[in-house]
């Protein structure tokens, strides 16, 4: 799914109106009715109690007025609070007139009426037309609402939050439990710094112009299963292990052979035809016993890797999990960057070594895939002022070094060399556990070994890793989830995204 800017979303509205030959008021009716259906499916009139609908002067307020009318028609008790304003949008005015007289209307000029804790409040004050931080009466209302401990549901976006840019730190923004938006996700929903405002977010289709969305260039995408169609075809009957490449992993050091084992198992469960693992001597027995399907190529040194093996046989190389940062291990990385012909996946201590020796970044082979968490990324670049700045750093970094960078987090974000960002939709908080990143390295290395493009390997790898985590959490719960559980569910996750051709 594309992530459009507020401006592009407005253009999508206009395109839909033109194409369908409808009025903007009809589109508003559609959006607000979809919202009402969403709400009434989750709350009966008794569960909802008296619903307060707070409406601003623009079309977001118009959505609120339509929702208030629709809820009233369905037997919900509703009252409306109107923000004082010098001008109103046309569709606001039309729907203000359509509001049944039986719905009580309060002027919010005198502040927010008293709201019982746990009361249901619909926030329709401001949407994507917000042009500056809230101040004056609007900011005061938002602060009173946030203090009221109500069950707030934001329509389209929490009021005061910009759809695709940061606002000053002390701005008034509604803290919603749920945000119900339309058609496509907004960037603001995907960033940790906005989680306290957005709550759980949901998307409702309202039939925005497919043609406009397809033709519009988006700098950002939200990756869902539909985007992956055809990326992983089913295996032909006469496939043999050579068809699926030969991966090499360089991983492990004394005390961290577990990282090598996790990456190894993940690589095997992600379809690599053959896998060789370079570990220090201490890892030999451990690896052979825990992953007999992999070939083990031990380093002459006992505790860490000191020599690069012959690279000729391999179709992809992953380096980093549990590697350590010994001087001779760094030399191996330097040599690898110089000599690798096969695609690289670089993680963990290999990234930290790059961070400590940034001159090496210029040696990264084009199309390498890096998989840092935010701290590792900071070591490669600089501390970010906020989540938006971090995305800017990500974009610049990928462009400068012509690499793909997987910035791990709740909505893991992949940066591509031409500057596009891809946010992942799968995964859960249980995956914030030791070894989860090692598993991802194994997955992406396996996909690169199978000759997937760097974009497909990174996007699909991150998606399948998250999906495996979600399937695992259904069994273990989030707290009980271990990285090894993610490995167990990689097969089912890949099965879901494999494209079958029936005819
Ligand atoms: N795209 C869709 O899927 C649909 C969206 N709909 C809804 O429409 C809103 C966007 O409506 P819009 O009228 O463009 O914008 P807002 O309702 O957010 O508000 C605009 C008015 O608010 C004023 N404004 C802006 N910032 C402030 C501020 N900080 N303080 C006070 N007032 C502010 C603005 O005034 P300007 O001076 O900036 O011009 C406007 O008066 C979208 O979010 C959806 O909810 C449709 O229903 C159709 C489908
Ligand atoms: K809103």
From TrEMBL:
Its cofactor is K(+); Mg(2+). Binds 1 potassium ion per subunit. GO terms for molecular function: ADP-dependent NAD(P)H-hydrate dehydratase activity; ATP binding; metal ion binding; NAD(P)HX epimerase activity. (6S)-NADPHX binds at residues 59-63, 127-133, 156, 259, 322, 373, 438. It holds the Pfam family Carb_kinase. PROSITE patterns: YJEF_C_2 (PS01050), YJEF_C_3 (PS51383), YJEF_N (PS51385). Catalyzes the dehydration of the S-form of NAD(P)HX at the expense of ADP, which is converted to AMP. Together with NAD(P)HX epimerase, which catalyzes the epimerization of the S- and R-forms, the enzyme allows the repair of both epimers of NAD(P)HX, a damaged form of NAD(P)H that is a result of enzymatic or heat-dependent hydration. Catalyzes the epimerization of the S- and R-forms of NAD(P)HX, a damaged form of NAD(P)H that is a result of enzymatic or heat-dependent hydration. This is a prerequisite for the S-specific NAD(P)H-hydrate dehydratase to allow the repair of both epimers of NAD(P)HX. Homotetramer. This is Bifunctional NAD(P)H-hydrate repair enzyme.
């Amino acid at each position: 799914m594309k992530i459009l800017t507020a401006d592009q979303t407005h253009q999508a509205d206009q395109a839909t109106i033109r194409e369908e030959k409808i009025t903007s008021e009809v589109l508003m009716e559609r959006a607000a009715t979809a919202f009402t259906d969403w709400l009434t499916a989750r709350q009966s009139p008794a569960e909802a109690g008296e619903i307060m609908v707070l409406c601003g002067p623009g079309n977001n307020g118009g959505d609120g007025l339509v929702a208030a009318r629709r809820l009233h028609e369905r037997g919900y008790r509703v009252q409306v609070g109107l923000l004082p304003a010098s001008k109103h949008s046309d569709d606001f005015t039309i729907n203000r007139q359509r509001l049944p007289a039986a719905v009580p209307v309060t002027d919010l000029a005198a502040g927010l009426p008293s709201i019982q804790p746990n009361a249901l409040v619909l926030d329709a004050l401001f949407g994507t037309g917000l042009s500056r931080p809230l101040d004056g009466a609007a900011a005061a209302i938002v602060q009173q609402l946030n203090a009221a401990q109500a069950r707030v549901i934001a329509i389209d976006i929490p009021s005061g939050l910009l759809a695709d840019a940061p606002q000053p730190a002390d701005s008034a923004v509604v803290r919603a439990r749920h945000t119900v938006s339309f058609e496509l996700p907004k960037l603001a929903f995907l960033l940790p710094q906005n989680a306290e405002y957005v709550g759980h977010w949901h998307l409702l289709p309202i039939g925005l112009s497919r043609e406009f969305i397809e033709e519009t260039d988006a700098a950002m995408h939200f990756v869902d299963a539909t985007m992956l169609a055809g990326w992983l075809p089913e295996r032909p009957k006469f496939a043999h292990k050579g068809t699926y490449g030969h991966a090499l992993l360089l991983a492990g050091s004394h005390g961290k052979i577990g990282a090598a084992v996790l990456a190894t198992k993940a690589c095997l469960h992600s379809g690599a035809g053959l896998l060789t693992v370079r570990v220090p001597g201490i890892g030999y027995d451990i690896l052979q016993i825990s992953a007999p399907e992999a070939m083990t190529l031990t380093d002459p040194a006992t505790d860490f890797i000191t020599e690069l093996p012959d690279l000729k046989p391999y179709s992809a190389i992953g380096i980093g999990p549990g590697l350590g940062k010994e001087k001779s291990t760094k030399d191996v990385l330097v040599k690898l960057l110089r000599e690798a012909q096969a695609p690289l996946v670089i993680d963990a201590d290999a990234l930290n070594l790059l961070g400590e020796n940034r001159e090496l970044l210029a040696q990264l082979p084009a199309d390498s895939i890096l998989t840092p968490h935010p701290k590792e990324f900071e070591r490669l670049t600089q501390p970010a002022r906020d989540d938006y700045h971090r995305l800017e750093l990500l974009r610049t970094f990928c462009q400068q070094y012509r690499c793909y960078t997987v910035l791990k987090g709740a909505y893991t974000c992949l940066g591509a060399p031409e500057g596009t960002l891809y946010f992942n939709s799968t995964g859960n908080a249980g995956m914030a556990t030791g070894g989860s990143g090692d598993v991802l390295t194994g997955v992406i290395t396996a996909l690169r070994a199978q000759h997937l493009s760097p974009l497909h390997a990174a996007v699909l790898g991150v998606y399948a890793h998250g999906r495996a985590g979600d399937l695992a959490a259904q069994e273990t719960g989030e707290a009980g989830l271990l990285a090894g559980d993610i490995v167990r569910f990689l097969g089912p996750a890949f099965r879901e995204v494999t494209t079958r051709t029936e005819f």
